[in-house]
Design brief:
Elements: E1 2-7, E2 12-19, E3 24-32, H1 37-52, E4 61-65, H2 71-88, E5 92-95, H3 97-106, E6 113-118, E7 123-129, E8 140-143, H4 144-154, E9 157-159, H5 161-166, H6 179-188, H7 202-205
Domain Gcp-like: 34-151
Pfam family, one: TsaD
Organism: Rhizobium setariae
Length: 216
Protein backbone atom coordinates (compact mmCIF):
# COMPACT_ATOMS: atom_id res chain seq x y z
CA UNK A 1 0.00 0.00 0.00
CA UNK A 2 1.21 3.49 -0.82
CA UNK A 3 0.14 6.35 1.39
CA UNK A 4 0.60 10.08 1.27
CA UNK A 5 1.52 11.12 4.81
CA UNK A 6 0.98 14.66 6.12
CA UNK A 7 2.05 16.17 9.45
CA UNK A 8 1.29 19.77 10.35
CA UNK A 9 0.54 19.26 14.04
CA UNK A 10 3.55 21.24 15.28
CA UNK A 11 6.30 23.54 14.04
CA UNK A 12 7.26 20.98 11.41
CA UNK A 13 5.45 21.00 8.09
CA UNK A 14 6.07 17.60 6.52
CA UNK A 15 4.78 15.38 3.75
CA UNK A 16 5.99 12.07 2.39
CA UNK A 17 5.06 8.90 0.57
CA UNK A 18 5.06 5.72 2.67
CA UNK A 19 5.26 2.27 1.08
CA UNK A 20 4.12 -0.64 3.26
CA UNK A 21 6.19 -3.15 1.28
CA UNK A 22 9.36 -1.23 2.02
CA UNK A 23 8.26 -0.29 5.51
CA UNK A 24 9.56 3.23 5.06
CA UNK A 25 9.02 6.51 3.28
CA UNK A 26 10.25 6.58 -0.31
CA UNK A 27 10.30 10.37 -0.46
CA UNK A 28 9.61 13.27 1.88
CA UNK A 29 9.86 16.98 2.46
CA UNK A 30 10.08 18.59 5.89
CA UNK A 31 10.63 22.13 7.11
CA UNK A 32 10.49 23.75 10.53
CA UNK A 33 8.34 26.82 10.02
CA UNK A 34 6.24 27.43 13.13
CA UNK A 35 3.55 29.16 11.07
CA UNK A 36 2.55 29.30 7.42
CA UNK A 37 1.65 25.66 6.82
CA UNK A 38 -1.07 26.60 4.35
CA UNK A 39 1.40 28.38 2.08
CA UNK A 40 4.06 25.66 2.10
CA UNK A 41 2.20 22.34 2.30
CA UNK A 42 0.71 22.16 -1.23
CA UNK A 43 4.09 22.66 -2.90
CA UNK A 44 5.70 20.25 -0.47
CA UNK A 45 3.20 17.54 -1.45
CA UNK A 46 3.82 18.16 -5.14
CA UNK A 47 7.58 17.92 -4.62
CA UNK A 48 7.49 14.70 -2.60
CA UNK A 49 5.13 13.06 -5.10
CA UNK A 50 7.44 14.02 -7.97
CA UNK A 51 10.44 12.63 -6.10
CA UNK A 52 8.64 9.35 -5.41
CA UNK A 53 8.03 8.79 -9.11
CA UNK A 54 4.39 8.03 -8.38
CA UNK A 55 1.26 9.65 -9.71
CA UNK A 56 -1.49 10.74 -7.33
CA UNK A 57 -3.60 7.96 -8.86
CA UNK A 58 -1.10 5.43 -7.42
CA UNK A 59 -1.97 6.41 -3.85
CA UNK A 60 -4.32 4.14 -1.92
CA UNK A 61 -4.72 6.11 1.28
CA UNK A 62 -3.86 9.45 2.87
CA UNK A 63 -2.64 9.69 6.47
CA UNK A 64 -2.70 12.93 8.45
CA UNK A 65 -1.91 13.80 12.06
CA UNK A 66 -5.01 15.15 13.80
CA UNK A 67 -3.55 16.35 17.11
CA UNK A 68 -3.33 17.21 19.81
CA UNK A 69 -1.02 20.00 18.71
CA UNK A 70 -1.12 23.30 16.85
CA UNK A 71 -4.73 24.29 16.16
CA UNK A 72 -3.93 26.14 12.94
CA UNK A 73 -1.49 23.53 11.65
CA UNK A 74 -3.89 20.66 12.30
CA UNK A 75 -6.72 22.48 10.60
CA UNK A 76 -4.59 23.11 7.50
CA UNK A 77 -3.32 19.53 7.27
CA UNK A 78 -6.70 17.91 7.79
CA UNK A 79 -8.46 20.22 5.33
CA UNK A 80 -5.91 19.57 2.59
CA UNK A 81 -5.86 15.82 3.24
CA UNK A 82 -9.64 15.67 3.06
CA UNK A 83 -9.69 17.67 -0.14
CA UNK A 84 -7.16 15.37 -1.79
CA UNK A 85 -8.97 12.30 -0.54
CA UNK A 86 -12.22 13.54 -2.00
CA UNK A 87 -10.60 14.35 -5.34
CA UNK A 88 -8.79 11.00 -5.52
CA UNK A 89 -11.68 9.04 -3.97
CA UNK A 90 -9.41 7.31 -1.46
CA UNK A 91 -9.69 7.01 2.35
CA UNK A 92 -8.20 9.70 4.59
CA UNK A 93 -7.12 8.26 7.94
CA UNK A 94 -6.41 10.37 11.03
CA UNK A 95 -3.54 9.46 13.36
CA UNK A 96 -3.12 11.16 16.74
CA UNK A 97 0.23 12.56 17.78
CA UNK A 98 -0.02 10.58 21.02
CA UNK A 99 -0.32 7.36 19.01
CA UNK A 100 2.85 8.34 17.16
CA UNK A 101 4.76 9.00 20.39
CA UNK A 102 3.64 5.67 21.87
CA UNK A 103 4.39 3.70 18.70
CA UNK A 104 7.99 4.82 18.73
CA UNK A 105 8.55 3.79 22.34
CA UNK A 106 6.55 0.60 22.88
CA UNK A 107 9.00 -1.66 21.04
CA UNK A 108 11.69 -0.82 23.58
CA UNK A 109 9.44 -1.20 26.62
CA UNK A 110 8.02 -4.20 28.44
CA UNK A 111 5.45 -2.10 30.28
CA UNK A 112 2.69 0.36 29.39
CA UNK A 113 3.64 3.72 27.92
CA UNK A 114 2.09 7.03 28.91
CA UNK A 115 2.54 9.20 25.83
CA UNK A 116 2.77 12.80 26.99
CA UNK A 117 3.16 16.00 24.97
CA UNK A 118 3.92 19.42 26.43
CA UNK A 119 0.68 21.41 26.22
CA UNK A 120 2.08 24.52 27.94
CA UNK A 121 0.02 26.28 30.64
CA UNK A 122 1.37 23.78 33.18
CA UNK A 123 -0.43 20.93 31.45
CA UNK A 124 0.42 17.87 29.38
CA UNK A 125 -1.60 16.12 26.72
CA UNK A 126 -1.48 12.45 27.63
CA UNK A 127 -2.80 8.99 26.85
CA UNK A 128 -1.97 5.61 28.33
CA UNK A 129 -1.18 2.70 26.00
CA UNK A 130 -0.79 -0.99 26.85
CA UNK A 131 2.26 -2.96 25.75
CA UNK A 132 0.49 -4.07 22.56
CA UNK A 133 -0.32 -0.48 21.58
CA UNK A 134 -3.95 -0.57 22.67
CA UNK A 135 -5.16 2.70 24.15
CA UNK A 136 -6.16 2.25 27.80
CA UNK A 137 -7.39 5.80 28.39
CA UNK A 138 -8.78 8.61 26.27
CA UNK A 139 -6.48 11.44 25.24
CA UNK A 140 -6.79 14.16 27.88
CA UNK A 141 -5.09 17.20 29.37
CA UNK A 142 -3.37 16.58 32.71
CA UNK A 143 -1.66 18.70 35.29
CA UNK A 144 1.90 17.55 35.90
CA UNK A 145 1.30 15.89 39.26
CA UNK A 146 -1.87 14.23 38.01
CA UNK A 147 -0.14 12.56 35.07
CA UNK A 148 2.87 11.60 37.15
CA UNK A 149 0.65 9.94 39.76
CA UNK A 150 -1.44 8.08 37.18
CA UNK A 151 1.63 6.82 35.34
CA UNK A 152 3.10 5.58 38.63
CA UNK A 153 -0.16 3.85 39.58
CA UNK A 154 -0.27 2.04 36.22
CA UNK A 155 3.43 1.17 36.20
CA UNK A 156 3.83 3.07 32.93
CA UNK A 157 6.83 4.79 31.42
CA UNK A 158 6.21 8.42 30.47
CA UNK A 159 7.48 9.17 26.97
CA UNK A 160 7.49 12.20 24.71
CA UNK A 161 8.20 15.85 25.50
CA UNK A 162 6.08 15.47 28.62
CA UNK A 163 8.75 13.25 30.13
CA UNK A 164 11.28 16.07 29.80
CA UNK A 165 8.84 18.51 31.38
CA UNK A 166 8.28 16.22 34.36
CA UNK A 167 12.04 15.80 34.69
CA UNK A 168 12.43 19.57 34.95
CA UNK A 169 14.10 20.17 31.60
CA UNK A 170 15.21 23.84 31.41
CA UNK A 171 13.85 24.48 27.91
CA UNK A 172 10.82 23.22 25.97
CA UNK A 173 11.36 19.96 24.12
CA UNK A 174 9.88 19.39 20.67
CA UNK A 175 8.23 16.08 19.86
CA UNK A 176 9.19 14.34 16.64
CA UNK A 177 6.42 12.71 14.63
CA UNK A 178 8.26 10.60 12.01
CA UNK A 179 6.38 10.22 8.75
CA UNK A 180 7.27 6.53 8.59
CA UNK A 181 5.66 5.96 11.99
CA UNK A 182 2.53 7.87 10.98
CA UNK A 183 2.31 5.87 7.76
CA UNK A 184 2.79 2.54 9.53
CA UNK A 185 0.00 3.30 11.99
CA UNK A 186 -2.36 4.58 9.29
CA UNK A 187 -1.80 1.54 7.09
CA UNK A 188 -3.07 -0.84 9.76
CA UNK A 189 -5.97 1.30 10.97
CA UNK A 190 -9.41 0.69 9.47
CA UNK A 191 -10.17 3.06 6.63
CA UNK A 192 -13.23 4.12 8.58
CA UNK A 193 -10.97 5.97 11.07
CA UNK A 194 -11.99 9.55 10.43
CA UNK A 195 -9.59 12.44 9.97
CA UNK A 196 -11.17 14.79 12.49
CA UNK A 197 -9.07 17.29 14.46
CA UNK A 198 -8.47 16.26 18.05
CA UNK A 199 -8.76 19.38 20.18
CA UNK A 200 -8.53 18.52 23.86
CA UNK A 201 -8.61 21.87 25.63
CA UNK A 202 -11.60 24.13 25.24
CA UNK A 203 -9.34 27.10 24.55
CA UNK A 204 -7.77 25.25 21.66
CA UNK A 205 -11.14 24.66 20.04
CA UNK A 206 -12.69 28.13 20.35
CA UNK A 207 -11.07 29.61 17.21
CA UNK A 208 -12.88 26.87 15.26
CA UNK A 209 -16.06 29.00 14.95
CA UNK A 210 -17.34 28.80 11.40
CA UNK A 211 -14.99 25.98 10.43
CA UNK A 212 -16.68 22.89 9.03
CA UNK A 213 -14.49 20.18 10.59
CA UNK A 214 -16.20 18.81 13.74
CA UNK A 215 -14.53 17.74 16.97
CA UNK A 216 -13.33 14.14 17.29
Amino acid sequence: MRLLVIDTSGPECAAGVYDTERGDVVSFRSETIGKGHAEILPGMIEATMAESGLAFADLERIAVTIGPGSFTGIRVGVALARGLGLALQIPVVGVTTLEVVAEGRLAARDKPVFAAIDARRDELYGQLFDTDGTAITEASAYHYDELRALAHAKGAAVEGSGAAVLAGAPSPQLDAFPLATIGRIAARLPKSRKAQPLYIRGADARPQTGFAVPHA
